[in-house]
C-alpha cells in the first residue's frame, strides 16, 4: 500500500482525532478532509469546524453533517426489525453506527478525490473492523489508515507531547486521563475501560450518563403507546414522528425511568472479552414494543424463523459485516416478514423496567374465537388435536419400540 | 384403540380432575390409579389422598409424591443451561413440568399394570401435546385418554351436574367460574383465559399471585450472589443449597422485588395465539445470573453456537418434544459447553428488575491483561489486527470489484 | 364441516380418480368440476376429457391445462436456486408439484363457485398434507375432501366392484394390481410400494422408467453447457430455451446417460419411513450445474448461509409449506443471493454420473491473480495471514490457558 | 515473539520441507526436530530419515510415525458421522489431516522441550490456518513458524539456489516446476494450481492419480456391503477390518471404479476462491453408505437436525477449528445421534458412480407394517392424518384470513 495522498478522516473535533489529523499531515504529508457527523451523540458540531480550520483544513474539505434521520431510518430501524441482540443482551448501539460513518467517508472520498480514509479506533477493539470492512466493501480500492495501529504515540504522555508540539489546543479536563472511555449516538451510550476493567466490580454510579438511577426515577409508572408500520415505529402516544425524533423522545422517556441499563462482558470479534456499560433507553423500549406487536401480527412460522436467524444477524452486525451479502440476505428475509407488522404496543415504564402490557392491531392474528375457554362456535374441533398428536407421536413410538429391542 | 382396563390419572385433587376420575370409572368401567405430584405448586397434597379415597380409589392405587428436587435437577436446570426462552420471552415454566409428570405416569402404569394414562388438559392447548408425546415416547404401547377431547361435559353447568350426580364434593368457591385459569409449579405461575382474553387490555392486578407489584416492592435494592457449578446454580449468597431449595429461595427473593412478570401473546403449537401472564421470579434471576457467568467462562465460539441453537431447543420443549432425539442431541451439545461454567454472579434486584452487575470465576476467560487500555506488556500485537481485517475484507473487496463491473 | 355442494377434483383420468369422481357424486350428491393438469407427466390429457364427460361432468366443468411452463418457472426454478435436497439426496420432485395443483384447484373453485376441492392422495403419505396445507393457505374457508381417508373402499376388490357398479371403464391392465405406485411430472418420476417395500432389496430393473440403465448408456461421454441468468437456467449448449423446454431437454440428456437415479428411504412428514425410487434426470444436471455456477459467482458468506438454510427450506417444501411465510422468507433471502449468478457450467455426462468439469462467468469472483502459486503482483500480502491467524487464535489460546488452570 | 530455540518441523522428506529445515537452522540457528507422519499418502517414510540425518538432524530428533489408524479412527470417522461436506461437495480430505499433524507437533514439542513448531504451508492457503489454530489451541504458548510467509525465497530459482548452496540434494524431476500441487493422505488426494488455475478448463487426465478414468473402469458393476456400528464402518463384505484397513480397501474399490472425483471451485477461509481436483474414492463410498444406514436407523428429528448442523460443522473443520469448543459441541450432538446407527449398506459401484441400492439393520426404524399400501392391521389410522393436517393448517388459515382483510 503506497502512501495516501488525500485522506478523509472521521473527525469528532476532540483531542484524539485532532492529534490524528495532525499526525496524518505530518506523517504522510497528505491533504486531510474531515467528516464530522451528528449521530445524536449530544455534542455541538460547529466547534469541530473551527478546530479543523485551526489545524489547517481548507473550508471545502470540512464536512459536517446531521445524519440522525438516515442513521435511524436506514440502520437502526432495519436492525430492530430483527429484534437483534448480541450475546443475548447487547443492542448493538455502537456497532450499527460504524457502517454509516464508513459509507459517508467513502462517498466523500469519491467526491473529493481522496484515496484513503482514516479513523480513530484502536487496534484492540471491534470498531476498527467495522470501519474497515465497511469501507473495503464499498470501495475495494480505498486505503484505510488506522493511526492507533501505526504510530508510536503509545502513552498519554506522548500524545500530549505531540499535541503540544503541534499547537493542538488541549482542554483542561483532557490533560488527565478519563476514568473510562465513552461512545455515544442516538441509540446508545457505551462506557468501557479503566474503572470498569474488573467485571466483578459493579460500575460506579457516575458512569451512567443517559439514564437516571432507577432509584431516582419517578415513583409513578408511566404508560406509553408506540405505533408501528411495517415493523418500524412511526408514532408515540398517537403522534406521528420522524424516525430520529421518535427515538429521541423514547430516549427521554426511557432515560427518565431508568430503563435500558446494561452491565455486561462481551466477546469481541478480535477474540478477547471486554466489559461494557451500555445505556440504550429508547432502544430498549423499542425492542419491547416491537416484540409486542410481532406477537400478534407475525405467524409463528415466521416468528420462530426470525428468532433462529437473529443471533447470526446480530453477530454479523457486531463483527462489522453490515455491508455483506449474508447480512443483506438475512435482511431480505426479515423485511419480508414485516409487511403486516402494524399496530400499537402499550408499555409500562417504571424504575428501570419497560414491559409491554397491551397490544392491538388491525392486522392481528390473535383470534379470541379460537382460543377462548368459552364455547367457540365450531371454530376449532378439539378432536383434530388427537390426530395431530398421534401423527406427531408416530416417529417417537417407532423409535421407542426400536430402542426396546 | 380398545377400551382401557386400568388408567393412571394425573390427579390434582381439584374438582376437574375429580370429575375426570369419576368419568373414567363410569365411562370405561376401568380401575383408576391416581398420581398427585408436588411440583412446588404450593398446595397441600394430602387432601388429594382423602378425596381419591372418597371417590373409591384403593389406597395402593394412590400415588402422592414430592418430585420437586427431581423437577429442578433433571428438567429445570438442564433447560436453564441453554438459556431457553420461547419467542424471545417465555421461560417455559409450564412446558418443562409436563414431561416429568408423563414420565411418572408411565412408570406408575408399568408398576401397577395399567394400560393407559389420562390427563386433564383440554384439546385447545399445548399441554395435551406435551403429556401425550412424552407418554408415547416412553411407552409406545400406552393408551392416552384425554377426557376433555372426548366427553360431552362441554359447559360449566354440565360439569357441575355430573359432579353432583356422582357425589363429588364441590367447594363453594368452585361453583362459579374462575375469572382465569392457573397453572403453577416451582418454576412459575401462569394465568390464562377469561379476563385475560383481550390482549390489548393490561392484566388486572389481582391476576398476579406470586410477585408483588413492583410499585409495592421494597424501596431499597437488594444484592444477591448466585454461584454456579457446571452451569447449574448451587449456592445463594454463599450458602450451598439443593436445587429445589435454591429455586424456592430465588422465588421468594424475586417475588419480593416484583421480578419476573411477563405479559405476552404466544403462538401455541396447535396453531392459535393465546395470551398469558407468567410469573417466574426465581427463574428470571437464574437466567440473568447464568448469562452473567457464561459471559466470562464461555468462549464466544461456544456461546454464539448456544445462542443459535437455543430457539430450536426452546421450541422443542414448548412443543412437547423433551423426550426426542433432537432435544437430547441439543442437550448433549449444550451440556458439553458447561464443563467450566463455574463462578458467581452478583444481581441487583429492584422494583421489578434483576440485573447482573458483577461476576467472577476461577474459570474466567476475561483477561484484563489483553483488554486493557493501558500498556499490555505485549499480550496483544495491534498490528495483527490489520492482517485480520485485510484477510476478512478480501472476499468483500473481490465482491465489490465484481459488482462494479 | 357441512357437506360440499360443488367440488373441484384433481383428476388424472385414471381409474382411481374416476372412482373418486363418481364417489363424490354419489356420496355427497354434489356437482363435480375436474381439473387435469399437464405437469409433464408424459400422458395424453384429452382422454381425461372424454372420460370426465362419460362420467357426467358438464363440459364447462372440465378444466384441462398445460401448466408446464408455470411449473418450472414458478416452482421448480425457485427451488433449484436453493440447491434444495431433502435428507441429503431427494430433489423433491413430487413435493414441488403439489402446491401448483392446489393453487389451481382453489382458483378454479373461486371461478366456478365451488366450496370444496378433492384429491386422490391417501392418508398415509405426504401428498395429502401438501395438497391440503396449500389449499387452506390460499383459501381458509375452502373444504378439502380426501376420499381415501373417508370411504370404505379399502381393498382392490371393493374398488373394482364400485367401478363396475357405476359403469366406470376399467382398462385391462388396471384389473390386477400395479407392482408399484408411480408419480410423474416434468421434474421426476417416483416409484413406491409393493415390490419396493423391502429396503434391503435392490429395486428391480423394470421399476426405472425414465432413465436408461447406466450399463446401457452410451460408451462415450457427452459434454453439455448450461447457462444461467440470476440463478435460473436459460440456455442449453448456447440455445436459449423456455424453462419447461429446457428441463425437457435436460431430461432427455440425463435419461439417455442414466443420470439422476436415486434409491432411498425417507422420513415422511406423517412419521413413518418409506422407500422410494426417484428418477430426476434433468434436475440432477441442473443442480450440479447450478452449484458449479454458484461456486464462482457467489461469495462464500452468501454461499455458506444458503447451505445452512437449505435443509430447513427443503423440509418446508417436503412437508407441504410452500405457501407459508417462513418458506417465503427463506426464498427472499435465497433470491437476493442470485442477482449475479450468471454464467455457464460445463457438465460431463457418462453412464450415470453428471459432473461439472468447467464453469465461467462474466460475474466470476474467482481471481487467478489472487490465488496463483505464481507471483501475484502484490494482490495479496501473505503477511496479512499471520495477523489473521493470530487474532482468530486469541480466543482459543485464552481458552487453552484457562483449561490448564 | 522471540527467536525459537528448538523447532519441531512437519517434515515430508521432500525438497521444500528440506529447504525449510535448513532455513530454520541457518535463519534462527535453532535445533530442529523432524516429524514425518504416514497418513496414508502412499510414500515411503524411511528416505525421510536418511535425508534428515544428512541435513544434520540428530537421530533422537527424528520422529517417523504411522498414524493411519489414529487418523481414520479419531478424525475421519467422527467427521463422517456428520456426513460433512463443505460447500455441498468437498469431503474435507486435506482439512481433516491438519489437526492431527499439529497435535503430534505440539506433543513432540513437549517431549523434546521445543518452544516452536513449523510447517510448510504457504500464506495463501487454508492449511496454514489449520496448522496454527490447532497448535495454539493445544498449547497457547507455542511459537509457530511459517517460513513461506517469512522468507525471501519467493521464486523457484531462489529456492533451488538456496538448496544448492546448502547441499540439499535435488531429485532430477524436482528441478523443473511441477505442473500442479498435490496433497495426499488416506482419505484423499487433492491437486491445485498451475494447469488447474483456469476453472473453465476441464482438468487434464493426467491430474487424476488415485482413481481410474470412469471410461477405463470395469464394464461390470460391483456390489459391496459396508457394515456400520455406532455410525462407524467396521466391516467390508462381512469382513471386520480396522479403520485404516477398511478405508484402504474402500479406496482400492472406489479407485478401481472411478468413484469420488471432484472438480470444484471453493471459497478459502482467507477469502479467495481456488480450484481443486479432489479424489476421495473410499470416502465417497463411505458417505453414501453412511447416509444409507442412517436413512433406516435415524429418526427424522435427529436426521434433520444433523443436516442443519452439518454445514456449520464442515465449515469449522475446513477453517481449521477442529480443536474448538463449538466443533466439540456439535460433535457431542452428532455422536449422541449415532448410538443405534448400526447395519449394512449395499453399494453398487459402476464407472464413476457409487449408489446405495439396499440397506438393512437390526436397529431399523423402517416399518413395513406402517408404510404398506396393503392392509396394515390397524398400525396406522388414516383418520388421524385429517386432524394432523387441520391443526397444522390452523395458523395458515388464520394468516390467510388476516391477509384478506
Descriptive terms for the model:
homotetramer, 405 residues, Rossmann fold, 5-stranded parallel β-sheet, 5-stranded antiparallel β-sheet, 42% helix, EC 6.3.4.5 (chains A, B, C, D)
Q: Would you write up a description of this structure?
A:
With 405 residues, chain A is α/β, with parallel strands linked by helices. The first copy, chain A, is built from 13 helices and 14 strands. The first copy, chain A, has helices at residues 15-28, 46-54, 68-81, 98-112, 127-138, 147-150, 156-165, 243-256, 281-297, 300-319, 325-337, 368-371, 382-404, and strands at 6-10, 31-38, 62-66, 116-118, 143-145, 181-184, 189-192, 222-229, 232-236, 239-240, 261-267, 273-279, 343-350, 353-360. In chain A, helix 5 links the parallel strand 4 (116-118) and strand 5 (143-145). In chain A, helix 3 (68-81) packs across helix 8 (243-256). The first copy, chain A, starts with 5 loop residues before the first strand and ends with a helix. Chains in contact: A-B, A-C, A-D, B-C, B-D, C-D. At the A-B interface, helix 5, strand 11, strand 12, helix 9 and helix 10 of A face helix 5, strand 11, strand 12, helix 9 and helix 10 of B.
Amino acid at each position: 500500500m503506497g502512501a495516501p495522498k488525500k485522506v478523509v478522516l472521521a473527525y469528532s473535533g476532540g483531542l484524539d482525532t485532532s492529534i490524528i489529523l495532525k499526525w496524518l499531515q505530518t506523517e504522510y504529508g497528505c491533504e486531510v478532509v474531515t467528516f464530522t457527523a451528528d449521530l445524536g451523540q449530544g455534542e455541538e458540531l460547529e466547534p469541530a469546524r473551527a478546530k479543523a480550520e485551526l489545524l489547517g483544513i481548507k473550508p471545502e474539505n470540512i464536512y459536517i453533517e446531521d445524519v440522525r434521520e438516515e442513521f435511524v431510518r436506514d440502520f437502526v430501524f432495519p436492525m430492530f426489525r430483527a429484534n437483534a441482540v448480541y450475546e443475548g443482551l447487547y443492542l448493538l448501539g455502537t456497532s450499527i453506527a460504524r457502517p454509516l460513518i464508513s459509507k459517508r467517508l467513502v462517498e466523500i472520498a469519491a467526491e473529493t478525490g481522496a484515496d484513503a480514509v482514516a479513523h480513530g479506533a484502536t487496534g484492540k477493539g471491534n470498531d476498527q473492523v467495522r470501519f474497515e470492512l465497511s469501507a473495503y466493501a464499498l470501495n475495494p480500492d480505498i486505503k484505510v489508515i488506522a493511526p492507533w495501529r501505526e504510530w508510536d504515540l503509545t502513552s498519554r504522555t506522548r500524545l500530549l507531547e505531540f499535541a503540544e508540539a503541534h499547537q493542538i489546543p488541549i482542554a483542561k479536563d483532557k490533560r488527565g486521563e478519563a476514568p473510562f472511555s465513552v461512545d455515544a449516538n442516538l441509540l446508545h451510550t457505551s462506557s468501557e475501560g479503566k474503572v470498569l476493567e474488573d467485571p466483578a466490580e459493579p460500575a460506579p454510579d457516575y458512569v451512567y450518563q443517559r439514564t437516571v438511577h432507577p432509584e431516582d426515577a419517578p415513583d409513578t409508572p408511566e404508560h406509553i403507546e408506540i405505533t408501528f408500520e411495517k415493523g418500524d415505529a412511526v408514532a408515540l402516544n398517537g403522534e406521528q414522528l420522524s424516525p430520529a425524533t421518535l427515538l429521541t423522545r423514547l430516549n427521554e422517556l426511557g432515560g427518565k425511568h431508568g430503563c435500558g441499563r446494561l452491565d455486561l462482558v462481551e466477546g469481541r470479534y478480535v477474540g478477547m472479552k471486554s466489559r461494557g456499560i451500555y445505556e440504550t433507553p429508547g432502544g430498549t423500549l423499542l425492542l419491547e414494543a416491537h416484540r409486542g406487536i410481532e406477537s400478534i401480527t407475525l405467524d409463528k412460522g415466521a416468528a420462530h424463523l426470525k428468532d433462529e436467524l437473529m443471533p447470526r444477524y446480530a453477530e454479523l452486525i457486531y463483527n462489522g459485516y453490515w455491508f455483506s451479502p449474508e447480512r443483506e440476505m438475512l435482511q431480505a428475509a426479515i423485511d419480508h416478514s414485516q409487511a403486516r407488522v402494524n399496530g400499537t404496543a402499550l408499555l409500562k415504564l417504571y424504575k428501570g423496567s419497560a414491559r409491554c402490557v397491551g397490544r392491538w392491531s388491525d392486522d392481528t392474528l390473535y383470534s379470541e374465537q379460537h382460543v377462548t375457554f368459552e364455547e367457540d362456535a365450531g371454530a376449532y374441533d378439539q378432536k383434530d388435536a388427537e390426530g395431530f398428536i398421534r401423527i406427531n407421536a408416530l416417529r417417537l413410538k417407532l423409535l421407542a419400540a426400536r430402542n426396546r429391542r
